[in-house]
Amino acid sequence: PGPRARAATTKAGVPGVRHIVAVASGKGGVGKSTTAANLALALARLGHRVGILDADIYGPSLPKLFALADSKPEVEEGRILKPLEAHGLRLMSIGFLVDQEAAMIWRGPMVMSALQQMLREVAWGDLDILVVDMPPGTGDAQLTMAQTVPLSGAVIVSTPQDLALIDARRGVTMFEQVAVPVLGIVENMSYFICPHCGERSDIFGHGGARAEAQRRGVPFLGEIALDMTIRATSDSGSPVVVSAPDGPHAQAYLAIARRI
Ligand code: ADP
User: Fold this and answer.
1) Per-residue pLDDT for 10 more than 70?
2) In the chain, what are the domains?
3) Which amino acid residue places its CA nearest to atom 14 of ligand 1?
4) pTM
5) Which sites bind ATP (predicted)?
């Protein structure tokens, strides 16, 4: 087969999975994994059947975010892996499968085959949405993933700083290059409300992601506060959408989930 046919084969859909949505960021540390986890939980609360795949091979976060660090998936017939479950989500991460130090030294082809295995050799079952927590950045590995995973769309996470926004812009460009629709930009760590006096501070500036979204003609999906609760609940394995379901942060994630 020629290159077009090959591309079509590698981009074949995952049986039973209606939509695959990437959560991506131009750089690390902006809260991409936190956002992916809470968005997946918010989508599940809206009644969708949701899975989450941790494609951040060099820094998997799912095991910690869902308190599954010591869990291993069961192997079903024919080497098919059973996804783990938490809070109604089906989950798979390279962190469940191999020692982190081993994965750190993998080269591109190993990373890609691990990703394909997590996509296609896992019994995802029927899902409305599979959320993919992408590795941070816009290099070759990310581009190849964006190209080979049959994505319905991508959500870009950014913090308000100029530098993060420049990287977010690269993220938008990367998905446009491979003809994956950008569903919108989320501004994380958007503002801080002082827990003592209630005053709001825009620690990293504010509104940059909204302006960037407007410039690029992509939707602005919403703002998430910089808040200790978001960090602490993630660290304890029950992200804020499930541990404080009626609080303002859960509501913010739900509003974003309704827009994608
Ligand atoms: P990335 O996936 O972009 O590398 P993470 O989601 O791992 O980023 O987040 C990095 C750190 O910042 C984590 O400790 C996480 O708990 C924390 N964090 C992310 N978003 C927020 C937020 N809105 N408020 C407070 N802490 C946050």
Assistant:
1) no
2) 15-259 (3.40.50.300)
3) 231
4) 0.94
5) 26-33
